[in-house]
Design brief:
By secondary structure, this protein is mostly helical. It has a single domain, classed as Globins (Globin-like, Orthogonal Bundle). The protein contains 5 helices and no strands. Helix 4 runs antiparallel to helix 5. The protein is globular, with a radius of gyration of 14 Å.
Length: 92
């Protein structure tokens, strides 16, 4: 079901949030190579990082329902925003 390359990339994206949690004090450093790759080689519009982060939060809210409290949502919003900012860091 689906494109295996898209599935593999999705797994990388979600795994990167685990790395983000381990590097909360240095997100820009932790994502520097990915930022450079997405900017210089892949030419991804940095707005897509913010949009994808918001989609991930919506999916989590849908999946977890009432367990996805306002505090949990705020924590995830802060995390995805930090990751999006770190990924956009190398853009000029």
């Amino acid at each position: 079901m689906g494109n295996p390359k898209v599935k593999a990339h999705g797994k990388k994206v979600l795994t990167s949030f685990g790395e983000a949690i381990k590097n909360l004090d240095n997100l820009k450093g932790a994502f520097a190579k990915l930022s450079e790759l997405h900017c210089d080689k892949l030419h991804v519009d940095p707005e897509n990082f913010r949009l994808l982060g918001n989609v991930i939060v919506i999916i989590l809210a849908t999946h977890f329902g009432r367990e996805f409290t306002p505090d949990v949502q705020a924590a995830w919003q802060k995390l995805v925003s930090g990751v999006a900012t770190a990924l956009a860091h190398k853009y000029h």
